[in-house]
Amino acid sequence: MLTREDDIDVHALRRQGWTISAIARHLGRDRKTIRAYLNGRQAGVRTPAGPDLFDPFVDYCRARLTEDPHLWAMTLFDEVTGLGYDRAYSTFTRQLRVRGLRPACEPCAPAKGRPAAVIDHPAGEETQWDWVELPDPPGSWVAAGYTGRAFLLVGALAHSGRWRGVLCSSMEQPQLIDALHRVTVALGGLTRSWRFDRMATVCHPGSGKVSASFAAVAKHYGVTVAICPPRRGNRKGVVEKANHTAAQRWWRTLGDDVTPEQAQAALDEFCATRGDARLRTLGGRRGTVSSFLADERLAPLPAPFPAVLTAERRVSAQSLVAYRGNFYSVPPELTGTTVTVAHRLGATSIDITTGQTTGRLPTVIARHRLAADGAGVMVRDSIHITALETAALAAFTTAAPHRRKQRIPPGPAAQAAADHFRDKTTATAPDPGRVVIDLAAYDRAARGRNTLR
């Protein structure tokens, strides 16, 4: 078989008047081969060795795969084998691939590779929101409620591209509401619309209708809620790219010796120094994200929506409860138990409750002023301090601990118990000097014995 380059030379030399024999000698080929290519054989195309045995089954396979694009090739192979196809399975699948008989399933196709329209994002119009699941948080975060994974709520201004994120221990609605407010504060204000994917805490995933509980949040902040159609990741591509940046440039390099509050501070610094310095081109103007922020014209925020955050914490040996990088005291009798910290957003205090209830409300065992997150302060009530000192002193002893090889003989109490045991044993034992005068005892002992030798 000739290559395409040889085929070109054959036709060029023939046009110049060379004979077939001369061309064959020049290229080192057989004359019949040269004649075949001059007569129309295509370079790089093999002539079938025989009839196409798959051709009679093409229409059936195309129809079946159009009806069910996910039909297994092995299942289809079983069907065409029953119709008379007698070649191997590998030959069958190769024919399916070469002929392109399996159509692409649009609902199941990934968003990558699809045509994407250019979406206009007017200044101050839209904030895009999304959760990022962060695996394998540091082991020390378990005490703060991060069990096995952490969650990052990312908010991005669609026009300028500025984004911020807040770490959360769960994706529950109170956590979402708190993170929404904190991210909006970091972004500088409110846009006219908030865009979400189909979060169960925002809308009903099936219908896309906003839930009643989140409708109250949207009305509180005075924003409209836009829900993305399913499987349309490109619709909120600004926050999707921010998610990728947060996972790969911040979370991936986070150390094991940081607290959640320190990690949050590191993320805020990264966004302010690296994220806001990113270059963009908007409206034919080149600049950083920060340079376009003035165009947003964001609205001021109201007070936080009064959602109640709850978190379970274990009381330490010092009768302290850790919450958001600070420590709050409780009565010493709760040491080692699990309590619940409740914080109403916007309030300046927190309540610590137990599982016990009075009527329908949990029993509040302590109420403290809320310290700034990550301050590392210890907020203690004077009553708790006094009770803890009293309990510690009551449990204090000056007795020296026992040594492993110390000689400790039985004491008076043990000796008295031993003497009492001996007296009872002696009272019930038979008297060795007692004379047996009852001959019936001998009779019972001798009965049944054979006295003959």
Automatic annotation (TrEMBL):
Residues 5-65 form the HTH IS21-type domain. InterPro entries: HTH_IS21_transposase_type, Integrase_cat-core, IstA-like_C, RNaseH-like_sf, RNaseH_sf. It comes from the Bacteria. GO terms for molecular function: DNA binding. Residues 402-430 are annotated as: Disordered. Keywords: DNA recombination, DNA-binding, Transposition. The keyword Disulfide bond does not apply. PROSITE patterns: HTH_IS21, INTEGRASE. One of its GO terms (biological process) is DNA integration. It holds the Pfam family Mu-transpos_C_2. Residues 118-248 form the Integrase catalytic domain. Belongs to the transposase IS21/IS408/IS1162 family. This is Transcriptional regulator. It comes from Modestobacter caceresii.
